[in-house]
Automatic annotation (TrEMBL), chain A:
<feature type="domain" description="EfeO-type cupredoxin-like">
    <location>
        <begin position="17"/>
        <end position="112"/>
    </location>
</feature>
<comment type="similarity">
    <text>Belongs to the EfeM/EfeO family.</text>
</comment>
<feature type="domain" description="Imelysin-like">
    <location>
        <begin position="138"/>
        <end position="369"/>
    </location>
</feature>
<feature type="signal peptide">
    <location>
        <begin position="1"/>
        <end position="25"/>
    </location>
</feature>
<keyword id="KW-0732">Signal</keyword>
<dbReference type="Pfam" id="PF09375">
    <property type="entry name" value="Peptidase_M75"/>
</dbReference>
<dbReference type="GO" id="GO:0042597">
    <property type="term" value="C:periplasmic space"/>
</dbReference>
<dbReference type="InterPro" id="IPR034981">
    <property type="entry name" value="Imelysin-like_EfeO/Algp7"/>
</dbReference>
<dbReference type="InterPro" id="IPR053377">
    <property type="entry name" value="Iron_uptake_EfeM/EfeO"/>
</dbReference>
TrEMBL record, chain B:
<dbReference type="InterPro" id="IPR011008">
    <property type="entry name" value="Dimeric_a/b-barrel"/>
</dbReference>
<feature type="binding site">
    <location>
        <begin position="256"/>
        <end position="258"/>
    </location>
    <ligand>
        <name>protoporphyrin IX</name>
    </ligand>
</feature>
<feature type="compositionally biased region" description="Basic and acidic residues">
    <location>
        <begin position="57"/>
        <end position="75"/>
    </location>
</feature>
<protein>
    <recommendedName>
        <fullName>Deferrochelatase</fullName>
        <ecNumber>1.11.1.-</ecNumber>
    </recommendedName>
</protein>
<dbReference type="GO" id="GO:0033212">
    <property type="term" value="P:iron import into cell"/>
</dbReference>
<comment type="similarity">
    <text>Belongs to the DyP-type peroxidase family. EfeB subfamily.</text>
</comment>
<dbReference type="GO" id="GO:0030313">
    <property type="term" value="C:cell envelope"/>
</dbReference>
<keyword id="KW-0560">Oxidoreductase</keyword>
<dbReference type="InterPro" id="IPR006314">
    <property type="entry name" value="Dyp_peroxidase"/>
</dbReference>
Length: 377, 445
């Protein structure tokens, strides 16, 4: 295959990618144009505004000059390209329609289109999704959040009732499944800082640790049920947790979920897993960390699933990696399933913990790019 | 400056004998070169016009000397104020908090007398005399047999707990000194908080700080119990630029650009030093409130945050350090023309910390921060962050007002204050007749 032919083939492949031909970012690869006796090959070229590099090969029988024209003005030119030689020309172009000269003046001029990035321009900055594209996913996510928060209210009512009635075993059994509804929508619940503090803080957040009077919520009750193995003195904490849960329900119902909090929420959930759940610090008395772990992962997977078609268009490899890593996490967690729930965190083998660490960290890295990929600031 | 003459005239180490191993009368004299340098400092400062004198001027000139390896850099010990507050920051820091084990006021005074002498000797780079090799050595040997000053400063501060019932000092507590209360985003670990006595070690190298800490542990086993400690560091190459370049914190942002000019004596008198106008107990004059905060930064998560979001959270661009919308690091943001926060968001860290309006004009602080890096968290993430210190004459108007404005800032998602405390950095030691907190311990009932 001759050089000219190879050029033609590769350029044709590029042309196929977009209606106007090859759109290339400035400093990635130069745009090749071959001048034959009959004209430019390709005759249609597209680039993005800014600096572009052109490699002009003279495959004709006579010396040529190559020019970029804007109307009658010569924007850039290279004179006297000898037959068989290739010259490199760098031009900084504003958006607009230009022409290229192609050897003999009788030859048709080539078309050079300079336009802002298009979806077809793989190297260009990914285009932001339009607000309309997000209406569907946002609405569906709101439904998901509402379903979880409704379930949280119902199950917290049963849980706190068991605590107040002194039914230790019942309360212990209800603790972890109830929390899962909170953990699935944690990034939304955490928008309300005061409630997150009173409902879900751990004793590490307080100077006097478990004895601190500010330590309330799920984990305070957890300490009573699983640490002290008693419901004594927990009634006021249970009442407060129920009131906070209803307050959270009210506030979430009136909340307009923004694209940023939904899309960013996937990363937030995995950051929670990476920084807290994987270490078994979250549920230190009940050892039910794997319930929370799975719930965080569920919440992140839901968001990713809703955004899948939008991300797929922009970065299919990202979607593939994320799905692969979710599958790995789910597979390890599945080994520890026990009926409706999970084994104790203490049973998690060290090698399985490491098997979780890799995919979780990779998910954190990938999901942190989700907002940028969709152009959501 | 007169106090420095005592250093010239006599090595203070002779008065430092431990009961078990009295130093011989002919304790090693201060090396000649050191005397020369101190003398140079004296002359240098005396030659300056009033008002133009700058703290630690001699130290800075010396550090700028191309042939200096820094091991003989020396901070003044005697003076109205302690070193380590407005003196320029060397590369290594160590903050250690102690419980005081003295039983009564007299024992506390004796402890402070001995601490004063030991601190003066350590800052001068003096070594204890060698003892019989059948005994444990009197010094760790960490700095070699000759010892070195290495720019060491040791800055002593009392915590609120020292003013409880043990020593009859309750009525003389600095007015605003209390145990640090947790702010909403804090997750304070009691084991890394508070203390009766705080010692801030600053030196050119971590080894010099550790040497000084170990000297205190060895010499005061029944006087001081170590409660917690935290090391910190700054890039030495940035420090060498003498403030032209700003060190970056572990979030990758320049940290300290808008800090006060510690060489501006009038400003320091106004913002940092307690004086007799403050309504504070008389003994506090020349001291300052010292706030220490160990602030963990969640760096993995930060590194997974979009650049633009990082910049709007801080309020500066990351590369240059300029306030958003401006070009240069030291350009001053004009918030008056940006009332809605279009350039620098209203909740950006720099805007909350210092809104540059009339209401916040007197709530400024002198910061003295270092980076730190410990081990890992249980989740296998990096345990690192900022070893923050601030100095101010009024704790409420200073740090507490600033931190209260910062409560709820978006940066909170990436930081977790875990330790530290409020302390009162003692006034300086005037001379050999004086000792740390003498005015408190002897003249009050």
């Amino acid at each position: 295959m001759t050089t000219a032919a190879r050029l033609t083939v590769s350029l044709a492949a590029l042309c196929a990618a977009g209606a106007l031909g090859a759109a290339r970012a400035a400093d990635t690869a130069p745009v090749g144009v071959t001048i034959s006796d009959k004209g430019c090959e390709p005759a249609n070229v597209a680039v993005v505004p800014g600096k572009s590099v052109f490699k002009i090969k003279n495959a004709s029988k006579r010396a040529v000059e190559w020019e970029i024209l804007k109307g009658v003005d010569v924007v850039e030119e290279r004179e006297n390209i000898i037959p068989g030689f290739t010259q490199t020309i760098t031009a900084t172009l504003d958006a607009g329609d230009y022409q290229m000269t192609c050897g003999l003046l009788s030859n048709p001029k080539g078309v050079l289109k300079v336009a802002a990035s298009q979806p077809a321009a793989a190297d260009a900055k990914p285009a932001a999704v339009s607000p309309m594209d997000l209406v569907g996913p946002l609405a569906e996510y709101k439904v998901y959040v509402t379903r979880e928060i409704d379930a949280l209210v119902t199950e917290t009512r049963a849980f706190t009732a068991a605590v107040k009635a002194g039914k230790l075993a019942d309360a212990q059994a209800l603790y972890a499944p109830t929390r899962q509804h909170y953990e699935r929508i944690e990034p939304i619940a955490e928008l309300f800082n005061d409630l997150d503090g009173s409902m879900d803080s751990r004793e590490d957040d307080f100077e006097k640790k478990a004895e601190d009077p500010g330590f309330t919520g799920f984990h305070r009750i957890e300490k009573g049920l699983f640490g002290d193995k008693s419901t004594a003195g927990l009634a006021p904490v249970a009442d407060k947790l129920m009131a906070d849960t209803e307050d959270l329900h009210r506030r979430v119902s009136g909340l307009a979920i923004t694209p940023k909090s939904m899309v960013g929420g996937a990363a937030d959930l995995i950051e929670e897993v990476a920084s807290k759940k994987i270490s078994g610090e979250e549920d230190r008395y009940s050892r039910t960390d794997l319930f929370d772990f799975q719930a965080n992962v569920d919440g992140a997977q839901k968001i990713v699933a809703l955004l899948d078609p939008l991300v797929q268009k922009r970065d299919p490899a990202l979607v593939a990696r994320v799905k692969g890593n979710f599958a790995k996490v789910d597979a390890v967690l599945a080994k520890y399933r026990n009926g409706q729930g999970f084994e104790s965190y203490d049973k998690l083998a060290p090698e399985d913990r490491n098997r979780l660490k890799g995919p979780v960290t990779a998910l954190a890295e990938d999901l942190s790019t989700l907002r940028g990929t969709l152009g959501i600031d | 400056m007169t106090e420095r003459k005592t250093i010239l005239g006599r090595c203070p180490f002779g008065g430092l004998a431990r009961p078990a191993a009295p130093a011989p009368e002919e304790a090693p004299a201060c090396p000649g070169r050191r005397s020369l340098l101190v003398g140079f400092g004296l002359a240098g400062a005396a030659g300056l016009a009033p008002g133009a004198a700058r703290a630690a001027n001699a130290e800075e000139e010396r550090r700028a000397a191309p042939d200096a390896d820094g091991t003989r850099d020396r901070q003044p010990f005697y003076g109205r104020h302690q070193a380590g507050i407005v003196t320029s920051q060397p590369a290594a820091a160590l903050v250690a908090a102690f419980d005081v084990l003295a039983d009564d006021r007299a024992e506390l005074a004796e402890l402070m007398r001995r601490l004063t002498a030991r601190t003066a000797a350590l800052m001068a780079g003096e070594m204890p005399a060698p003892t019989d090799a059948k005994l444990p050595p009197p010094d760790s040997g960490l700095l070699g047999p000759g010892g070195m000053s290495d720019n060491l400063s040791m800055t002593l501060a009392f915590g609120a707990s020292l003013f409880d019932g043990r020593f009859g000092l309750a009525a003389h507590r600095p007015k605003r000194l209390a145990a640090m209360a947790a702010f909403p985003n804090d997750a304070l670990d009691h084991d890394c908080c508070h203390g009766d006595l705080l010692v801030q070690f600053n030196a050119n190298t971590a080894e010099t700080n550790i040497h000084a800490l170990r000297a205190l542990l060895k010499d005061f086993p029944d006087g001081l119990a170590l409660r917690w400690k935290q090391d910190g560091f700054l890039p030495p190459h940035t420090i060498k630029t003498q403030g032209r370049d700003t060190a970056r914190n572990l979030l990758g942002f320049k940290d300290g650009t808008a800090n006060l000019d510690a060489r501006d004596e009038a400003l320091m008198d106004r913002i940092v030093w307690v004086d007799d106008r403050a309504g504070e107990p008389a003994w506090t004059a020349g001291g300052t409130y010292h706030v220490v905060r160990v602030i963990r930064t969640l760096v993995e998560r930060w590194d997974r945050t979009p650049l633009r979001e990082q910049e709007t959270i801080i309020g500066r661009d990351k590369a240059e350090g300029a306030p958003l919308g401006l070009a240069q690091e030291r350009d001053l943001p004009d918030y008056g023309s940006d009332p809605e926060g279009r350039r620098v968001p209203l909740d950006a860290h720099i805007r909350r910390a210092n809104p540059r309006d009339a209401a916040s004009a007197d709530s400024v602080i002198l910061r003295r921060a270092y980076n730190y890096s410990n081990g890992l968290t249980k989740a296998g993430q990096l345990d690192m962050g900022l070893l923050f210190s601030s100095f101010q004459s009024d704790l409420d108007r200073g740090f507490i007002a600033v931190q209260t404005r910062l409560n709820g800032e978006p940066l909170e998602e990436y930081i977790k204050p875990v330790g530290g405390g409020y302390f009162f950095a003692l006034p300086g030691v005037a001379g050999p007749h004086d000792y740390f907190a003498k005015a408190l311990l002897e003249t009050t009932a």
